[in-house]
Amino acid sequence: MLGQKLLKNLLFMLIATPVGNINAEIDLTGEWAPRYHEDLPERIPGPSIGEFHGIPINEAARIRGESWDPSILSVPEHQCKPHPADYATRGPSHMRIWKTLDRASQQVTAIRLHISWSASERTIWMDGRRHPPDYGAHSWHGFSTGIWEGDQLTVTTTHLKQGWLRRNGLPRSEKAILREHFIRHGNYLTHISIIEDDAFLTEPFIRSQNWVLEPFQQIGPYLCEIAVEVDRPQGTVPHYLFGQNPFLNEYATRHGIPIEAAMGGAETMYPDFIE
Amino acid sequence: MPNLIKNSCASLLIGLFIASSAYTQTSQNFQQVEIKVLPVQGSVYMLVGAGGNVTAQIGEEGVLIVDTQYAELSHKLHAEIKKLSDRPIQFVINTHAHKDHTGGNANFAKFGQSIFGGNVTGVVDGAQMGSQAKILAHENVLLRIAEENPPILFSGWPTDTFFRDKKELFFNGEGVQILHQPAAHTDGDSIVFFRRSDVISTGDVFSSNLYPVIDSALGGSIQGIIEALSHIIDLAVPALMQEGGTMIIPGHGRLCDEADVVEYRDMVIIIRDRIEDMIKKRMTLEEVIAARPTLGYDDQYGAQNGFWTTERFVEAVYGDLGGT
Asked: Which domains does chain A possess?
């Protein structure tokens, strides 16, 4: 009897314990300031036209990049497109992370992100829900579910709208799957993203970004208002026809890079390509 | 001249292929098709099965549906609609004449009931007026359905047609606009705009997973497709950051919004421009196909097999732009 009572008390204490974490989950919440030391020229000033090296693109992606005309960004319907989930962390990305809890159980149902550029907001569902069916709508940030793997948050995102691998016309398809790992080391946060996209990539495309905890950060509002600044006939879509982009080789020439290297592909990711 | 004849014949064959029973995917096992229902917003739902997507608007006054898929699926579709509302189906709207969108017309007319007034009483085709749903469509849909061979049931023909640019009705507390899109997928296309729910049902002038089907034998054209897509973009108002807002139910494929239509419109214009440039360079159809003018878009919209392959699309655009 005494043993049973002791066991009951122990169980009660275990259940009633106010804090505790058997899954080694770490708190990611807070204000995070980006660090751009990694890939700075591409992330902030932006990539050049025809700067595709180091990306495992296929022929279809390359031709989209070669056809791309930056003037497309002045078409009204393109002006206020936000960076999609897989690119949002690359640009100006002052970030706030918070979590939503179920009041009764105090379980985390979702982890949410706000990123400064275009006020992007994402929800990472932590309650085990399934991804929507294939006939459901796609969004810039897709549908994300997360799990804890030790103290690292691993996120899988589907249902993305068609987006971009780089801001120079290299596309990422709506069929792509984005896998991410959020890893906190004290006041530093590392984010690793892996894009798998059979439509435009021959190998997974892996990138990483870093932030520093910044409790005093205040993310300002982001407004985007569409304005017609170029008077074009309706139905004009700026682009270059095959072989007619006059700027395509400019980047390679300026930097003394062989054209075939600048044009990208999986082989350009590896050191032996240089040889 | 031989090329011209060849292209004209090809266009005719495509049209016949689309309009004929081949287009109805006779090999499909309809018994295995599951109807999936997706609430869109407001009073509007999207029903996905085989064939074109069906749009249902549900409310106090009854049910309005846009397109009816294949006749073989009518009972399954009706069963799902009855789960949403026990009110009668009053209106069926056809976005165009193809059987994957109109095959269930006769069944749904029979399942439904509409209110007639004035001096319209009596019996038409054995059915008491008012004892079936009205079928609304552009006049050219009726003309095309009337030309069908083998003929389709008279009770599946549109009962109310319009011949100008639009027809409007107010149903279930919202304005519903049926807007004709001339010479696009066919010559009878309409898009249906639910103004309060803020949803557009596009029919086959827009599909999220397929190059536009240009049925030149039924009066379709690439320019008409582009104008229809531009019209949808003009009507749609996205919410914050170019997302959501007006929702778009495509003829085939997943639920969309304006940004998806913009991607599609851009793709159609870019491929049109590429083929036009090749025609100016006097390239033959075979040379154009070999030059792959759809490169960059095939994974999303192309097909190697089925009724509308990438090659058929290129061939249709080439012929439509005057390639010889």
From this structure: 30-51+80-213 (2.40.128)
